Amino acid sequence: MVRFLLARPIAVFMSFLALLVFAFIVLRTLPISLLPPIDVPQIVVKVNYANASPEAIEQNVLSPIREGLITLNGLEEMDSKAGSEVGTIRLTFDYSTQMELAYIDVNEKIDRLSNSLPEELPRPEVIRINTSDIPVARVQVVPKENVDGVEVSLLAENVLKKRIEQLPGVSLVDINGKKERIITVEPNEEALAALGMTQQQVVSAIQSGNSELPGISVKDGQFRYYLRLATRVNSPRDIETLPVASPSGAIIPLGRLANVSYEAEEMLGYHLFGTEEALVITVHKQASAKMNELIPALKEALELFKDDYPQVEFELTQDQSNLLNAAISNLSTSLLFGGIFAFAVLFVFMKDFRIPIIIGVSLPSSLLISFLIFYFFDLSINIISLSGLALGIGMLIDNAIIVLDNITRKRENGLSLFEACVAGVNEVMGALISSVLTTLAVFVPLVFLSGISGALFFDQAVAVAAILSVSLAVAFILLPMLYFLFFSRSKKKEDQGESRFFSGVLRLYDAIYARIMGYRKVSFFVFVLLIPLGLLISQVLKTEGLPEIEKLDATLEIDWSEPISAEENRTRVLRLMESLEGAYTQAEADVGVRQFLLFGGENSIQQSLLYFLFPTTEEKEAALTQLNSFLKENYPAAVFALGDAPNAFDQLFNSSFPYYEVRWKDLESKEPVSEDRMGPWLSQLPTNNWEGGPGLQKEASVIFTLRADRLATYQIPVQTIQDMISRLFGTFTITDIRRFGEITPIRMKESQARFEDLLRNTRVYASDSSSYILGEFVDYEYEDHFKFVTADKGGIYQSILVTEENPQEMESDFVRWGQDKNLGIDIVGQYFKDQENIRQLIGILLISVLLLYFILAAQFESFIQPLIVVFTLPLGIGGAFLVLWLAGSSLNVMSAIGLVVMLGIMVNDAILKIDTINRLRKEYVQEDDVSPQQALEDALHRAGQIRLKPILMTSITTILALIPIIFSSGLGADLQRPLVEAVIGGLTIGTLTALYFVPLAYWFFTPKKKLNQA
């Protein structure tokens, strides 16, 4: 095939050129995003039920919904949590579930259940979780001084949101911190009492004045008209003119009985930017959009907003594209420095500038053609797929160097240019194909990991397979063709000798080789001893998910654990910010209930999330320490968590499930175990290292009890007292003004007085017009009760979160603890998922090793020689561990990728070396005057000399290309540094030891009887 293609170099060159043009066109259409568009198999159902207790929400809403959803296909887990006025159900599906169909199915079932839910309940929201739900940026909208917050909210909702949604690539715009305008009615109690009237008469007058005639029409000859009542109200002035009839028959304008005005609705949550109230707009991108085009377009739009709306200030924060830009920058840097250093190293070794130029042409060409495979597999350019390309670049350089070195060596042996290109490629073709297959055998099976890890590895595996496949095509077709074209006009006879530099290296190699082969048993024992010693270093390395990144931002999640209002929550958050004034460069906070459509977490008035950006890490650590002390001193009841601000990776990988949770259900009552029984039982738990789950968290509440005896004595209906309590406390909506999709509620103004004063000062009217104090019919008491009601598929449960180091050892103790109290015990958590993932990973790695062995056995036609390659790898792994340990790094995702890169290059070198030894042995044995023993010795020595140059060139170019990252700073360098350290450690120590270990192991593993027979 190589001969056939080289005979037509112009045709091959033009074909590759056309392919590059096509690949460039495709590259411009590929979506660019931060992460692959992974369907996280979770759906959240959110319920908002005003003025409802956790028990009422669980019994009347969540329980019927759970029963209706339990038959969903692929449903693995279902957990619900009911709190005051809010409830959530989290559905977790199997990863093979088609989430588009599951989302439709959930919505259909909730629509069917709507008749069995309370009439006043708004339709439950169904939220589907996806990686594209992670906002790419947040736009802060801050009203200037004396600007109405309601007007800014209308501007954000009706103008800014729509203008941002029109930007290409934007899928959703979400807003938090909006203020709604309502009409409040504040009855004048003195005027009502003087006229013998009640609040109910005012309420009835407003409801009557805002009534509509649905679907009524009149006929006028051949015409038909639909009726509309002219009495409908549109403003506070219209409401004040409504007539109200007094008991004496007098008609009184409502404005004399109540104060009616526009007001901002009481906020259940706020957004703060710095210490100022603001709105935040989160921008989400489409799966097919390019982030590197979306963010600049968003920044341009903000500049226009600043000119168009001078009453508002705009700021772009938490730009997630920084991670992607860092990855693209790292890839560009690797290509740039890789090309520069490869040119320098190749020129030193090869003494000809044309060979580095050939590699310089082949590297970007291979990378560009790889994007064609991205297009056919529907992949986006993201951090995961870019890391896959980075994995393959090392192998790509390796293949190019090996092919060009072999062609050059064939020319030096006297072959013509054409024959040297053909023979040089054919000789290494089988070994290079095997090395690529072994790399894929190690990597591709990871796609079959379950969960998000497997979904992420799919993009990486396809990227690796793409660039390695293209690199083979380039190495076998483009490189020899370019070599032929570049050297075909050369009239100068090639220099037969090696460069002075490589000649010195070769003499050093021969000296060490002679010393090692002179003491074979001792040397082999030392190499074998190095393998476990290198691997033992992993025991002192710490393990983590992502490497420690120098983050200048931090978050504070806080639950005040007190029944405070949103306004008090805001006051406390402002006090926190003021305590750090001057320490941070930027801060924002979501206080209380969040209005985001896609927010799937717990919405509570008592909770807040603060974000801080600091100028340096030292100031950040000092500020976090100060925050910790401030909270413990001033708010000892608060539960808070301080930590680094999560990036997109953290948000994707952070599990919503507890690590190890012990759940119990009361088998008799099917209800939560009461507090008086639960306290003594918890003291008998078999461990002291635990935290209470959501079902054990407490909060203070007030319990109203109606005195039925007095109500009966004074002949006052229970409904009258209930209606009065609902008007006095909470939000009582009289009616709504609806016009063209805009809804303005008319609400009774809530009194700011304490509830005890309201009970003492509010009068209730009996049927005989006599009045009584409301407090005479209502008793109240303070009580601590459970804050949440939690449930799963099996019903209501309570739980503890175990913080023991080895919680699984206590499983039987927890079961016995529950049996003694007639409790059903379930133990769940992320711990079991992690154990399952580890078992899967071990199984997949075993399959990978078997595949690697089978491929090598087929390549070498031997059952023994593949073991030499396998035993070479621990030397590189030990070298990588040693450098990671010396550099103070950890075992993490990036260092693991570095190990794969390094092992791919080492496998390649070992395969080619063994392949060369086998080929030389056959050649030497065919000579009549050479014994099999001597043929083996000569083949081992000569193969080492032949393969020394490409091995050193590959390792040195890779190491030199990566060294600049070690001395770089910033997010990208922090992410890539463990990868670089693993590659450098493995290639320096692993390559140097493998240079001598492979021939030594070959000599020991070659059967001596077979050698004598040969």
Automatic annotation (TrEMBL):
UniProt-listed InterPro entries: AcrB_DN_DC_subdom, Acrflvin-R
Entry keyword set: Membrane, Transmembrane, Transmembrane helix
Transmembrane segments: 331-350, 357-377, 383-407, 428-449, 461-486, 522-541, 841-860, 867-887, 893-912, 951-971, 983-1005
Record Gene3D superfamilies: Multidrug efflux transporter AcrB pore domain, Multidrug efflux transporter AcrB pore domain like, Multidrug efflux transporter AcrB TolC docking domain, DN and DC subdomains, Multidrug efflux transporter AcrB transmembrane domain
Alphabetical list of Pfam families matching this protein: ACR_tran
Tagged with keyword Membrane: yes
PANTHER family: PTHR32063, SWARMING MOTILITY PROTEIN SWRC
Name listed for the protein in its UniProt record: Efflux RND transporter permease subunit
Organism name: Algoriphagus namhaensis
Organism ancestry: Bacteria, Pseudomonadati, Bacteroidota, Cytophagia, Cytophagales
